Amino acid sequence: MENIVFLDRKTVKADFKTPSFPHEWLDFEMTNKVEVIERLKDATIAITNKVQIRKEEIDQLPNLRLIQVAATGTDCVDSKYCREKGIIVSNIRNYSTISVSEHVFSYILALRRNLFSNNNFAQNGDWQKSDIFCSLDFPILDLHNSTLGIIGYGAIGKAVKKIAEAFGMNVLIAERKGVDIVREGRVTFDEVINSSDIITLHCPLTDETRGLLSKEEFSKMKPNSLLINCGRGGLVDENALVQALKNGQIGGAAVDVLSCEPPSQGNPLLDADLPNLIVTPHVAWASIEAMQTLADQLIDNLESFVRGNPQNIVN
Questions:
Q1: Which pLDDT value is given to residue 206?
Q2: Is 282 known to be catalytic?
Q3: Active-site residue identified among 112, 186, 202, 232
Q4: Whose CB among 127, 154, 166, 193 lies 3.0–4.6 Å from 122's, allowing a Cys bridge?
């Protein structure tokens, strides 16, 4: 019989199907680092969204055979050490493609069309005082014929490209930063930085991508360009981004992710108080439909593992 423990059930607001195999299932709303070993001591299957399971925990969990990450990103798990110990790590794939790509364009439209400033103009009494029928104080830019640069071309990047083309945008797909060979259909990283009206990030956080955009990159961007980050907070130097916005090096930014979440110790992007900056609390992935897809795929992964044919294994 499998002993399943979900360490942070509160992070997925969806209904889970009951696995068909013999099991015991124990949910914890949230789990602190010091509680991980005690809560997983009898577990054969651990489910985690963001709770970290590292070498020090793995060494004290002899029964553990599968770590199921309730997300796509697996940086919360020491996957390499798990392979050495014969523990399978599995993740959830492509469940939030629609949700994230739609969120990206809600950001783009809000910033390019100055929705918040125009809403404030109407709501705070300025429209009533206007001597013309409208407000022309906040410039509006069309998406049509603008250039979107995509950094990170997986399932979400491809979905973003499809929506962009429906708007009539020109799309550039970035090659990896600093490489000499540019694959067919892509352009250099620097060309995306220099030429895009909007840059959107959809790459994982690795040693290679940490701090991908910083002071140097912002200095090369168009002065009215936008940065969208629905990937990982660590992809962007947050202090450099604040300075780029304040100095007018770029036109605006929208981020759904921060370098530390939740930002209990504060964050420069939350302290900036800038009209051309949108920050949302890591919700781009979390449409009702996406969360249910995640829950269904998670159970499918468990079923496949128990049958001896594990799916979505993290290499």
A1: 87
A2: yes
A3: 232
A4: 127
